[in-house]
């Protein structure tokens, strides 16, 4: 017959074995590779239609749009960037679980072409512009340089999307390009949420705002 003290020792040993087994199972589970979180991918959505101008441009010549360049942001990056203005506004930080579907400069170029094409013919510098230029005396060249394209947090809860861009307009002549005009555009749109989705929406809105400003400026240049 097993004594009471022996039964207690055996019961305690059994409980200890169960605890050790449970710890081993948890450790094995934690060692398994974790399923990566899906990355959300954003674009600018549909472009807003421009209203017909009261005074259309005096020229119907095509506009050549050069590749959009980056001056203050990584050129070929598809990352969505933000700044913490209340901590260090000079540091660009990428969202790790979200990105653009294409490099940001390509998305900006596509949106500018979509919007500007509503009032004039717009061709990219590398997609068939050469045959078109043969029939144009002095075609216009538009060069865009992005200085800032980021979500800026004024506080942990408040942020806005910023697009700051420099536009240079020139004419293509037999002797090369002739400078015509230059303008800096700066658009800021509030973000509805303090995350990548809010960043994407506010930056798309800022891009549309700059596109409309650019369209007005080009018409003032008779382009």
UniProtKB/TrEMBL annotation:
SUPFAM superfamilies: XCC0632-like (SSF159594). Keywords: Lipoprotein. Pfam families: ABC_trans_aux. The keyword Zinc does not apply. Residues 52-214 form the ABC-type transport auxiliary lipoprotein component domain. The keyword Repressor does not apply. InterPro entries: ABC_trans_aux. This is ABC-type transport auxiliary lipoprotein family protein. It comes from Comamonas sediminis.
């Amino acid at each position: 017959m097993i004594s009471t003290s022996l039964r207690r020792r055996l019961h305690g040993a059994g409980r200890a074995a169960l605890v050790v087994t449970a710890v081993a199972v948890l450790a094995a589970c934690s060692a398994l590779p974790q399923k990566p979180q899906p990355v959300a991918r954003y674009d600018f959505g549909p472009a807003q239609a421009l209203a017909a101008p009261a005074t259309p441009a005096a020229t119907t010549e095509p506009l050549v749009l050069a590749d959009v360049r980056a001056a203050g942001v990584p050129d070929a990056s598809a990352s969505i960037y933000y700044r913490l203005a209340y901590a260090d506004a000079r540091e660009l930080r990428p969202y790790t679980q979200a990105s653009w579907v294409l490099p940001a400069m390509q998305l900006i170029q596509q949106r500018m072409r979509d919007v500007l094409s509503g009032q004039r013919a717009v061709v990219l510098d590398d997609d068939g512009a050469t045959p078109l230029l043969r029939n144009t005396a002095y075609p216009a060249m538009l060069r865009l340089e992005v200085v800032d394209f980021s979500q800026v947090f004024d506080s942990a809860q408040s942020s806005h999307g910023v697009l700051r861009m420099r536009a240079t307009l020139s004419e293509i002549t037999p002797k090369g390009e002739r400078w015509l005009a230059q303008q800096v555009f700066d658009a800021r749109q509030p973000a509805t949420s303090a995350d990548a989705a809010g960043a994407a929406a506010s930056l798309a809105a800022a891009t549309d705002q700059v596109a409309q400003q650019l369209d007005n400026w080009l018409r003032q240049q008779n382009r």
